[in-house]
Specification:
alpha/beta; seven-stranded parallel β-sheet; two-stranded antiparallel ribbon; about 45% helix; globular
């Protein structure tokens, strides 16, 4: 169905540095703004390449940082990037976290509506670990919830995790939202999610993280 574009720092001495080790520093220093825009540009370039391979339906998901989301020119920036790379807006899904948008709900809702009017998709990432209330959730113009991998990890063995995941799936469907389970790593987790109506999953069960060239090789091998 699509891909999630994730940034990794390939350090010449330290090897691949995971985002948790450098994204907070980038946020604190403000470097996240040029970095985040670069990720959006590169993701849309790759999306265009995938579309040229006739891979449809297709979406490219990109995480927005807190600073990015609150930029005044965010909508215009995304509109420009999509136009330059000839990517239909519906092919881009922006992932935002609950805590990011709860600092000023009214302004956040206005910005989210501007993004959805542009045609891009919006998903709440790591759902269940933030601070949003159901009263706020019902007002967010989103299309999808992504269940945090912390709940998926023990969903087969932990009744509480199973109950939470089942409840999130039911809640989302009642609100006409799609659900994506993050961190799916075992066939048992996969079976549980299918049985409970979760339509989409991502995780190591399907693929390990791939480079752009590896993705292209896989897509060229598909019928």
């Amino acid at each position: 169905m699509g891909f999630e574009a994730l940034v990794r720092w390939r350090h010449p001495q330290l090897g691949v540095i995971p985002p948790n080790d450098f994204i907070p520093l980038a946020e604190d220093t403000g470097c996240i703004l040029p970095l985040g825009e670069w990720v959006l540009v590169e993701a849309c370039k790759k999306a265009r390449q995938r579309l040229d391979l006739k891979v449809e339906p297709f979406h490219m998901a990109v995480n927005l940082s807190r600073r990015q989301f609150w930029q005044e020119d965010l909508v215009e920036t995304i509109k420009h990037i999509l136009a330059v790379n000839r990517v239909p807006p519906h092919c881009l899904v922006l992932e935002i976290t609950e805590s990011m948008i709860m600092t000023d709900v009214e302004v956040a809702i206005t910005k989210m509506r501007e993004l959805t009017e542009l045609g891009v998709g919006l998903a709440i990432d790591d759902f269940g670990t933030g601070y949003s209330s159901l009263a706020a959730l019902k007002r967010f113009p989103i299309q999808s919830l992504k269940v945090d991998k912390a709940f998926i990890k023990d969903v087969v063995n932990n009744p509480n995790d199973a109950a939470i995941v089942s409840a999130i799936i039911s809640l989302a469907h009642t609100m006409n939202l799609s659900v994506t389970a993050e961190g799916v790593e075992t066939p048992a987790q996969h079976s549980f999610l299918l049985e409970h109506g979760c339509e989409t999953g991502q995780g190591y069960l399907f693929y390990l993280p791939l480079s752009a060239s590896q993705v292209e090789t896989i897509l060229l091998g598909l019928d």
